[in-house]
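Quarterly update from the structural biology core.
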Amino acid sequence: MEAYAEHGFGRDDRQTTQPKSRILGGLLTMTGSGVSSQIGAGIGAHAFPTLGPAGVVAVRQLVAAAVLLPAARPPLHRLTWKQWWPALLLGGTIAVMNICLYVAIQRIGLGLAVTLEFLGPLAIALMRSRSKLDVLCAVSAGVGVYVLVLPGPSSDYLGIGIAAVGAACWGAYILLNRVVGQRLPGLQGPAVATLVSMVFYLPVAGYLLSEGSLAGPALLFSVIAGVLCSVIPYAADLVALRHVRPAFFGVYMSINPLLAALSGMVVLGQILAMHEWLGIVLIVATNAAAILLAGHNRRQVRGRGRP
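Predicted structure, tokenized:
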């Protein structure tokens, strides 16, 4: 999810039309990234009974840091405060965003948790658009959330609220990642932020290690989640963006809530009701429409600025 937020919204659409073969390669790569991320989240949930959501996130962050830091090799000792402060904020945001997602998965299920978190990128897309259709998109998103949740006495409002906090963190992640990307080249920004996030979870990992919990199937599930949710999506998304335009990337990756719902069914046995499927489809469609509107309006603004 982090790579989706970084690349789907953080760059202008400046690429020319690509050959069909390259687009097909991009589609396959993006699909693989989404499937990997959502299956990884489902597999990680199997470790909840032993490690809890915080333990799974701790292992996931350790795995991500172990891969990103050697790959990016950020010069930590040479970073200025201007580079450090957004990376620190981004790392803290990642730490909160991930724990919110996993706690929400534990309480309300994978499909609902991921869908509600998509309200963060949706809000950013609407903020960047200036069309009158923005109001329609906002109303559509609100209807989608209502249909998805159908509030009632049995609703897990705490789980829904935690997912909403995760959505706010995802929105903040997108904005912070733009700043970090401007001040640190390549993967150095994500690597430093992942290191910061990992530091937050070291006490959790240390406690679980002292208790002897970081072993057996639970550890294996968590490591797999780290690889599938962080390592593979980062690499796959970087490859995909060489073949397709960023705006198309953002629209296509809006299918993640649908993939999450399917992963919840296959990996966790979480069967969704018809109203939940309808709510997911509404939010996915609204997210895609909002990204397209934002991209269209950016092109109009650039066009008006030309002589």
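The chain has one domain: 2-304.
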